Each structure stands twice: as C-alpha cells, then as structure tokens.
Automatic annotation (TrEMBL):
It comes from Tetrahymena thermophila (strain SB210). Residues 52-311 form the Protein kinase domain. CDD domains: PKc (cd00180). Pfam families: Pkinase. It comes from the Eukaryota. This is Kinase domain protein. PANTHER family: PROTEIN KINASE DOMAIN-CONTAINING PROTEIN (PTHR24362:SF309), SERINE/THREONINE-PROTEIN KINASE NEK (PTHR24362).
Length: 499
C-alpha cells in the first residue's frame, strides 16, 4: 500500500508557488481566492493520484480555478470547483444533448474527490477566451475584420440552433464563456452550469446565473418569459461591442435595454449590413427578436454578399490563379479564426536557480518536483571538471525537462567537463528548447566534439542557442541529426541554422 502511495505522490506540490499565487490574487483583487494555498496543494496532490500532473495555474473563474496539466501524455485543462450538485447534474444532462454539436465545449472526464468537496473537469486546453481577444484588439484601437466577426457569429448561431431544437437556454452568454481553440481555429461555447430546459411560460426569475451586462430586457420583468431569444440578445451585445471596438459599460447596456440602441450603433459604413442584424438581435420585445434559425440564415446571406464583393474585387486586379487562391483564403476566413495568444499563467513546472553554492538545495528541490523548464545560472564559478560532474548529477534527475537554460560560461570546464555535460544532455531526451552557454571554458576540439555528440542524440530539439566563444582550435564541426543541421563556426562566429 505504501509503495502504491509513493507512486501516486511522485512529485511534491510547489507550495511556495501556490502561496505566491494566493497573495498576488489578494493584492490585485482585495479579496481571497476561492481556494487558499493549502487547498491548492491538496488539489495538486488529489489530481496527482489520478495521474493528472498540474503544470501551470491559469486563472480563477466565478466558481473555481483553471489549471494546465499533463494527462495521458497530452496537455489538457483542468477546472476545479466547489461542487453545486444540482448545477453539475443539469450541466451533464445538457452536455449529452449537445455532444455532437460543433462549437460546443466538450470535457474529457469529470469526477469528484473522495470527500465530494471538489469537482474536477478535464478538457482540451484552449488558448484564451473571446474577452482576451477583444481586449487585445481594443487596446490597440482596432476592431476585428468584418468577415471574422460574421464567421464567429455563424459559429455561435449554429450552437444556438441546437440549443433551440432541444428547448434549452444557455442563460449566461458573455465573452468569458466563449473559448478559442487555436488548433481548430474556432470558438466553443462553454459553461452550461446555469443552462435551463424551458417550456412555454417559463419565467425569467428562474434564471440564477447571468451577467447583467449581457442580459436581455425581460430579465427585469417579473412576468417575463425566456427562450433562445434571451441568449440571442447576449450575443447581440457582443457583436455590438465587436463593431464598436470597445467594451460597453453596464450603464450603456441599461440604456440599450431601455430602447436607446440607436445611440450606440456603429457609424462605420462597413458595418451597415451587420448593424441591421444586430438591431434584430437586440429588439426590446422578445416576440420581435430574431430566433436562431433566422439569425443563421441572415448571417449566411451576409457572408455570401461579402464573398461576392471580394470575388469581384480580386478578379479585376489579379490573374486567374492568384485570384482563386485569394478567394479560397477569404472563404476559409469565415470558418477559421487565426489568432495567436499567450496566456498569463503561472508555471508550476518552471524553476530558475543561480548560485552554485546552493547546489545541494537545488538538487533536493528538483529531485522532488515535476520540472519541465529549468534555468541554471552558474557562470563565473571556476567549477572545473569536478563541478560539471555535480551539474551532471543534478540534470540526470530531471528527465522530464523540455526547456533548459544552462549558463556555464567562464568555468574552466575543459574537455573533461564538457564530457560530463554531454552525458547529462543525453539523459534529457525530451528537450525541445536548449540555451547552452559554454563560452570561455577551454573546451578544445575534443570538448566541442563531446558537445556535438550530445546534440546529435537530442533529436527533439527545435530551438537551440549555443555559445562557445573563444574556441578557435577547430575550424568547422558539422552535426546532423534528424532534419536539423547545426553548423558551428569558430573565430567567434556561431550560427544555428534549421533547414
């Protein structure tokens, strides 16, 4: 039993990182996180028992925290929340109804912890949400291209059609609940925990989870009824923000709910056609508001109109081959949304150390932790071959490393020292990114050969920065491994080239 527990808790939780996350959240938001640092440690260990290894903390949402993790060899997202059993049961039922629908968030696995005090949801990792993308564009005083706004709206209306067919309502349409899938280059609607089944006569006061800014006017009517048109109103506000190039304030949305929409419609002639659709989505009276099928029809008509205008324009200016290529790309732009983002996350598997005198503590730390990214700054320590042996022993304990920054400049390693570094790198077969500074170490030709031999065996490397300054005993040394060619030149000219 003890042996099984040792396997399950293979890695020690990064408690100091959780403490920093907790304190940073307090400082920024003037309130506590849903889970304190001790609970975050418990989450780490509970998931590890399921062979789910947390690699970064991404964010806190309304009901829990989201992490990146490694599970079954794949990078996934894990959401941990304090369970609301009725909400979870309702969400599971709705997800079954929508399981074959495109542009819908799908989980890989869900489970409770042993005490039923936490609920875990594993899914593919999404790059960001729509709010992040909007913020990025708005900060630059930009709006999204019209074709991509239309394409996004079609994706959401496709989901709404299925929701309407099943007599459902999402009830909390907002940019944070629309996730961007960078692999498929599309959007997925998520968070169905507040979704409802409705019948004729369902009342809006039954809606508990909603964001007032994106809520339809009927939310304030005690006798108001709800159906898919409630969700369409929320999407209409999002489209309005996309065309305006800014987020609306809560007060603005209150004015719009009270019939002041004309004051907020974009005056840009480019948006003339989509403005007409937005007006139908934001009708104050739900009976006058467009439904999902009508919305999809009008959006596709606008898409075809934009395609026709584009085709006419390019055929006048380009030859047959070039125009066909451009037309194909334009059509794809309605289906595929290209956006590159970097999430603001806290890596739980990243460690940086300086000061060779602390090596024993460093060795103890990295031996117990899950380490994928490691920075070691040990330059100017005159380590010699014996010191490099200690470095070798440290690195051999980190065979999960995918990214390594190793600064050993000015350490008098010599050829024997480079041999130790060679042996350690050969153990780290998962490295994809390597920054290696071995400058001013008197490596000689044998030392360069040792480093070359180690790189030859690191076949997963796609990014290499190699510094071997002041080595001038070898004119050229070529290393071929896989499809990558590393050409090392002397006389202080070093080139890394990928062909």
């Amino acid at each position: 039993m003890q042996q099984q527990q040792d396997i399950e808790l293979k890695y020690q939780a990064p408690e100091e990182k959780f403490q920093e996350i907790f304190l940073d959240y307090q400082k920024k938001h003037k309130e506590n996180m849903i889970f304190d640092s001790d609970e975050l440690t418990t989450i780490y260990n509970e998931l590890q028992k399921k062979k789910v290894y947390l690699t970064s903390y991404i964010a806190q949402g309304g009901y829990g925290c989201v992490f990146e993790a490694k599970y079954n060899g794949e990078i996934v997202a894990v959401k941990c929340s304090k369970p609301k059993f009725d909400k979870i049961k309702e969400e599971e039922k709705i997800m079954k109804l929508l399981k074959d629908t495109p542009y819908v968030f799908k989980s890989i696995e869900e489970f409770f912890n042993e005490k039923n005090s936490k609920y875990y949801q594993i899914s593919k990792k999404y790059s960001c949400n729509l709010k992040d993308i909007m913020q990025s564009f708005f900060d630059q005083k930009k709006t999204l291209p019209l074709n991509q706004i239309v394409g996004f709206a079609i994706q959401m209306s496709t989901v709404f059609e299925k929701i309407q067919q099943n007599n459902l309502i999402h009830s909390d349409i907002k940019p944070e609940n629309i996730l961007y899938d960078s692999q498929e280059k599309c959007f997925n609607l998520c968070d169905y925990g507040e979704s409802k089944s409705f019948k004729d006569g369902s009342k809006t006061y039954n809606l508990k989870g909603f964001t007032r800014k994106y809520a339809a006017p009927e939310i304030t009517d005690d006798n108001g009824l709800f159906n898919i048109k409630y969700d369409i109103y929320g999407l209409g506000i999002i489209l309005l923000e996309l065309t305006l190039g800014k987020f609306l304030e809560d007060g603005d949305c209150t004015f719009i709910r009270n019939g002041k929409l004309p004051n907020y419609i974009s005056k840009n002639a480019l948006y003339q056609d989509i403005n007409q659709i937005i007006i139908k989505m934001l009708e104050k009276m739900p009976q006058n508001r467009i439904d999902s099928f009508g919305l999809t029809k009008q959006l596709n008509e606008l898409r075809l109109k934009l395609e026709s205008q584009f085709i006419y324009a390019v055929k006048e200016k380009l030859d047959f081959t070039e125009s066909n290529l451009m037309i194909s790309k334009f059509r794809q732009s309605f289906l595929k949304f290209n956006y590159t983002s970097k999430q603001n996350e806290v890596r739980l598997d990243e460690y940086a150390f300086g000061g060779y005198s602390n090596l024993s503590k460093i060795q103890e730390c990295i031996a117990k932790r899950l380490v994928h990214h490691l920075d070691l700054y040990f330059g100017y320590n005159n380590l010699g071959a014996d010191g490099s042996k200690n470095i070798q022993m440290s690195l051999e304990k980190c065979q999960n490393i995918t990214s390594l920054n190793l600064d050993l400049g000015y350490n008098n390693l010599g050829a024997d020292g480079s041999k130790n570094i060679q042996m350690s790198l050969e153990k780290c077969q998962n490295i994809t990114s390597l920054n290696l500074d071995l400058g001013y170490n008197g490596l000689g030709a044998d030392g360069a050969k040792n480093i070359g031999m180690s790189l030859e065996k690191c076949q997963n490397i796609t990014s290499l920065n190699l510094s071997l300054q002041q080595f001038n005993q070898l004119s050229i040394y070529l290393i071929y491994f896989n499809y990558y060619i590393c050409e090392i030149e002397t006389q202080n000219k070093w080139v890394w080239r990928i062909n």
